[in-house]
Amino acid sequence: MTLNISFSEETQLFHLTNGDISYIIEIVHNTYLAHRYWGKALRDYGKHNQVPMYKKTFAASPYANRPEFSLEFLPMEFPQSYQGDFKNPAIRVTRNMTIDQIRLKYHSHKIINGLPRIPELPQARESSEDLARTLIISMIDDIAKVKVDLYYSIFENSNAIIRSSKITNHGSAILSVEQLASASIDCYYQGQNVTTMHGSHQKEFQLDSHKIHHGQFKTGTSRGASGPQHVPFIALSENNSETSGEVHALTLIYSGNHTELVERDQYNQIRLQIGLNSDHFSWTLEKNQSFYSPQAVLVYSSIGFNGMSQIFHDFATNHIVPPHFRNGTAPILINSWEMSYFDVNEQKMDSLVNKACELGFEAVILDDGWFLGRNNSKTSLGDWLIDKRKFPNDLHHIINKAHLLGLKFGIWFEPEMVSPDSQLLNKHPDWIMKSKWYEPLLGRNQYVLDLAQIEVQDFLISTLSNFIHNYKIDYIKWDMNRHITEPFSQINTLQHPKAYSHQYMLGLYKVINQLTSKFPNVLFENCSSGGGRFDFGMLYYFPQTWASDNTDGLDRQEIQYGASYLFHPYQMTGHVSVTPNHQTQRQTPLTTRQNLASSTNMGYELDILDLETCDTILVKEHIDQYKHDRKLISSSNFYRLSSPFNSNLTAWLFESKNKSEYILTVFRNRFHVNEHHHIIKIPYLNPDADYIFEKNSAVISGTELIYSGIHLQFEKKDWDSIILHFSKT
Hints:
Layout: E1 4-8, E2 13-17, E3 21-28, E4 32-40, E5 91-95, E6 105-113, E7 132-141, E8 146-155, E9 160-169, E10 175-188, E11 193-200, E12 203-211, E13 215-221, E14 233-237, E15 247-252, E16 258-264, E17 269-275, E18 283-285, E19 290-292, E20 296-301, H1 304-319, E21 333-335, H2 337-340, H3 346-359, E22 363-366, H4 396-404, E23 408-413, E24 417-418, H5 423-427, E25 447-448, H6 454-471, E26 475-478, H7 500-518, E27 523-526, H8 536-539, E28 544-546, H9 555-563, E29 572-576, H10 590-597, E30 601-604, H11 613-634, E31 637-642, E32 649-655, E33 661-668, E34 679-680, E35 690-693, E36 699-701, H12 702-708, E37 710-711, E38 720-728
Parallel strand pairs: 21-22, 21-30, 22-23, 23-26, 26-27, 27-28, 28-29, 29-30
Antiparallel strand pairs: 1-2, 2-3, 3-4, 5-10, 6-7, 7-8, 8-9, 9-19, 9-20, 10-17, 10-18, 11-12, 11-14, 13-16, 14-15, 15-20, 16-17, 24-25, 31-32, 32-33, 33-38, 34-37, 35-36, 35-38
Helix pairs in contact: 6-7
């Protein structure tokens, strides 16, 4: 590939390309930035896709001698209000709380090697294997004394573009930033669909796709976290195919309030935007102060949604995940939660360590219930001291034993929260998030600590640092089990109250950045009652996320399938749990639950101390098999083959990077007496190659697997599944 950012004085065109994709911007009348193209790489661009402008009634023009020219018809790169463009703007500001009009004009640009640095926020990382270049376009309003820098980064080997914005106040008036999009793109409606993801606790990552209607379609969250309700993701596609058609998709490297918007106007022009939720955002800038938007990741695929996911997966691995964990594998763990819930103690954990070693586990995780007075969800959060009634010999004995047996040891924390019944709250009532006039609401019987306060940040950094150091902890499960209802601090702040949610997120990023930097070998797992805060921002610090509290053998198929649109399956953790399932009471076979968990970063959560002999053998065999497959799964190309959202079959494929080894996983959910054929086609193979299947040594041509497919024989029962290993001969 050829990485290049060029600018032509003659045509006034910026062309960003890596030989596979192109992104083109035009400076119009030395003032406006027009979006001209984003898609498959162009050898050159002659402006032949540009639509002529015609004088229209109700259309306003900035030029008296050019009544046909109006920003209502110019596909904008960074649209502003009050200039004849009535669609949603990318920026809104007020000066001295009264004037909210600005007119930014192109001023200058520069092209740099590498990536920009965005203070205090997670961001795309440099990679020596995937070089980047960045275009910075500066726009200025000389009257308002406002400057906006637009950042565009393109990579040598990734078909992703990183966009973000920076606003600087150069005037004496106080500037309030009410909206600053990370990315805004204009194009034309040509029958595209819009795809987003919605969900809830225990039903995350549900796909939603429909035609783009006139008006605005908007999703997002005001919960203070990215949330399962509306994931920071939006895509436009020619169709809903996994294997064909153009897809233009956006996500954020951010974990707080966000908005995704697509707007279709009366002339069938489309505006696509992603960024901070402007309904719950405001940021005050005094003279010479700046504000940066979170980075947006823009992905283009010419081969459908599977192609889109491949780009997101590779980009996250190479440019988001902490480098120390980029090419490694996580330990296979047993978690204590479903075994004991809050009734955990030294004897149970001692037995669990012994059994885990016997079965071949690599880590033991002590979940909630281990700290002082924690017998239910109503007490003790914030008091991170060992409960000596449950662990009379402290934790050193169990942890040392685990380490002597070759096991890693991990522990659960919910650092951002505090219980009403806690020593911490009694000592620091001003540390919780609340307004000055009303009592705060409870969520899961807990309050949210005010991470905008430096004292609170320092307390969390010190508390967790001391604990990790003293107990030689290998793994932290970082949980967050409620969203923000009252985004207010009890301390005085110079910022607008609507700035609080972003201040909280900056405080959180500071805490976890310091901890992960101080303990680079400790594996931090992200959790928010499962997928309540699963995004590229958290992935920047925590290489894996507990995808859902719902471990049901059916529901998890949808959750993992939807999450794979953005995240590689190995960035999700999935556990084998008990049946009947604790969330749904559905009964599914152990092998199906194992096969489902094996499609993620796998662990266990059922009570292995109470297994029957036959199940003990199955668990040990499963762990041995997963150890054999883990390297392939963790570093694989991942393909979705059959969707649980519209089929009785769920199927996906793991392919080694050198395209020589494969794992095909298929779930047939409900048994129907009249359903006797289950044919799977695998369109991603090499038609010129032959493939040998491990189970029966059958050799099948690539063309047959691609176009004709193979029939899979399932048993006459519900919730059956099959895993097939095969390789290229």
